[in-house]
Amino acid sequence: MRKLKLQVQMTLDGYIAGSNGEMDWMTLPWTDDINKYVNEITDPVDTIVLGRKLAEGFIPYWASVAANPDDPEFTTGKKFTGTHKVVFTKTLDKSEWDNAVLANGNLVDEITQLKKQDGNDIIAYGGATFVSALIKQGLIDEFHLFINPTAIGNGMTIFKELDSKQDLTLVKATSFDCGIVVLNYEPKRD
To answer: What is the crossing angle of helices 52-66 and 74-82, to 10°?
Structure first.
């Protein structure tokens, strides 16, 4: 069965965005060592799952990067643009983007169906609501939490929807030259 990985940027105090969606706290530019790590976790990926809100910025942004060979993120832009995307939405009826389909059924059923399909790994990117739902339902197989060396005091979290404890096993903790630490966890399975 395919694995669903989560890659998410977080503040040291556990927020993935400010109260109004601000992401000006992210540590940029990244250094070569963290870019290599991201390439390693995304190379075996052939499907990206996104929440609709993030997709509205993510897909056009990476398409514009992929269209500019002089952009320093050109290779990543080509990878993300060329990778099949599934956008989870309750409001759209038709995909507005190339290489993207919509999923508007039950989240657990849709993700389970994707995992059972032939193919490589799946990676999730999304805002707090989408990612919280994936975590709450126990759908994530690998967590890659990019802890930025910044605290913002309040904002949007991804673990607030849990209604029971989820135990995780630390697979690896890696610090990078830019100051970000990536915590890689897997759920403890009974």
So the answer is: 130
Count of Cβ atoms closer than 10 Å to residue 176 Cβ: 18
Give me the amino acid identity at 83: T
| For residues 24-44, average pLDDT | 93
Measured CA to CA, the distance from residue 25 to residue 99 in angstroms comes to 31
- What is each CA distance from 134 to 37, 64, 102, 137, 174, in whole angstroms? 23, 28, 16, 5, 24
Can you read off the two tokens belonging to residue 88?
């989870």
- pLDDT of 73 reads 85
- Measured CA to CA, the distance from residue 181 to residue 12 in angstroms comes to 10
Lowest-confidence segment of 26-30, 120-124, 179-183 by average pLDDT: 26-30
C-alpha span between 171 and 185 (Å, rounded): 5
Tell me the domains of the chain and their CATH numbers. 45-176 (3.40.430.10)
Question: Tokens 């913002």 label which residue?
Answer: 152
| One-letter amino acid for residue 150 of the chain | T
pTM of the prediction?
0.93
- How far apart, in whole angstroms, are the C-alpha atoms of residue 97 and residue 168? 35
Q: Tell me the CA end-to-end span of the chain in Å, nearest whole number.
A: 17
**Mean of the per-residue pLDDT values of the chain:** 95
3-state secondary structure of 7: strand
| Residue pointed to by tokens 């990612």 | 131
